[in-house]
Write a structure and sequence with these properties.
The chain has 267 residues and is an alpha/beta fold. Helices cover 42% and strands 13% of the residues. It has helices at residues 3-28, 32-35, 54-57, 86-90, 106-116, 123-134, 136-140, 152-158, 162-174, 197-203, 212-218, 234-245, and strands spanning 98-103, 144-147, 183-185, 208-210, 222-230, 250-258. It has a 4-stranded parallel β-sheet. Strands 3-4 form a two-stranded antiparallel ribbon. Bound molecules: zinc ion.
Length: 267
């Protein structure tokens, strides 16, 4: 399918969905997002390329240009090449550039949740491929891909690190080496959920360290740091700082989903 056919198909499905949603709310008097799970019951790995049925696939909010060259935050109109968002100018991150495949919404949350808790490990393939496409420019400039590490206690409870699973697909797709053991958690952190922006930054301070083997591997290298979700950016910023301090030349960030505030006006 061409891009145009895809977007026409998507627009059509969205309008059908909107009508159904309207009808559902009117008939039942309930919010549809409560009535319907984000991914439907027919979204199974079998017979659905990418693990999503066409209707759910069409509801994924892919991030496309125009966006802030630095942070990858989508703009509502195209201000021209190289224009930065207010956030990038007012509060520049330690990392160089950030890109995300999709907006963090109900469907993205459900995809991350299913991957994280291990009932849909197959989703890492399509999610990682969407990330590789969104981060093409970053990966073209990269020497290695580094996942954000999971604390071993969480690894134990959850079986695997979803950032590492995504990073593996991204690295293979881009033909860039993967460094899974470059970073480690120096201490456990509490969940970032529910914390303010400044509390998140404090929570991850000193939480990450570069391993001795990692230090040799990243010296002078241009890295792409991979995580599943970018919220305040505190986690990837903390990882970037330790990587740069240990001798990395440059760190860009690639995530599956990022939180995007409703309206963005470039300056
Ligand atoms: Zn579905």
């Amino acid at each position: 399918m061409s891009e145009t056919e895809l977007s026409a198909n998507q627009a059509n499905q969205e309008s059908v969905f909107a009508r159904v949603a309207q009808f559902g709310r009117a008939a039942l008097g309930v919010a549809l997002d409560v009535a319907l799970p984000p991914l439907c019951a027919s979204c199974t790995p079998l017979g659905n390329p990418g693990g999503l049925c066409p209707a759910c696939w069409s509801r994924v909010s892919f991030i496309a240009p125009p966006y802030c060259e630095r942070l990858g935050i989508p703009f509502t109109y195209d201000p021209g090449p190289g224009i930065l968002s207010m956030e990038a100018i007012a509060d520049p991150p330690a990392y160089g550039r950030a890109r995300a495949a999709v907006r963090y919404d109900d469907i993205a949350r459900d995809l991350v949740h299913r991957l994280k808790y291990g009932d849909r490990l197959d989703l890492a393939t399509s999610m990682g491929q969407w990330m590789a496409r969104a981060g093409r420019a970053l990966l073209d400039d990269a020497d290695a891909v580094v996942p954000v590490p999971l604390h071993w206690r969480r690894l134990w409870g959850r079986r695997f690190n979803q950032a590492a699973a995504l990073a593996r697909v991204v690295a293979a797709d881009a033909g860039v080496p993967l460094l899974t053991a470059a970073l480690r958690r120096a201490r456990a952190t509490s969940q970032q959920v529910g914390l303010s922006r400044s509390a998140r930054a404090v929570n991850v301070q000193g939480a990450f360290a570069v391993t001795p083997a990692g230090k040799a591997a990243i010296h002078g290298q241009r890295l792409v740091l991979v995580d599943d979700v970018l919220t305040s950016g505190a986690t990837v910023d903390a990882c970037t700082r330790v990587l740069l301090r240990a001798g990395a030349r440059n760190v860009d960030v690639l995530v599956f989903a990022r939180v995007v505030a409703p309206a963005r006006v470039p300056i």
